[in-house]
From TrEMBL:
Top-level taxon of the source organism: Bacteria
Annotated protein name in UniProt: DUF2007 domain-containing protein
Species the sequence originates in: Fusobacterium necrophorum BL
Length: 46
C-alpha cells in the first residue's frame, strides 16, 4: 500500500516507543475515519 504523506509513516527504521511499523497521525474526525481501516486490520490480525 502507498503511504499518505502527513497521515501515515513507516517507522520500521526509526527508533520509537510502542509496537508496530506504522504511525498514523490523527488530527481530526475525518482522519480517524480514514484510519479506521488500518485500526480494524491491526485489531483483526492480532
Amino acid at each position: 500500500e502507498v503511504l499518505v504523506e502527513d497521515f501515515v509513516r513507516d517507522v520500521r527504521t526509526v527508533g520509537h516507543w510502542g509496537t508496530g511499523d506504522l504511525e498514523i497521525i490523527i488530527q481530526s474526525k475525518e482522519d480517524y475515519e480514514k484510519a479506521k481501516i488500518y485500526l480494524d486490520r491491526a485489531y483483526e490480525k492480532n
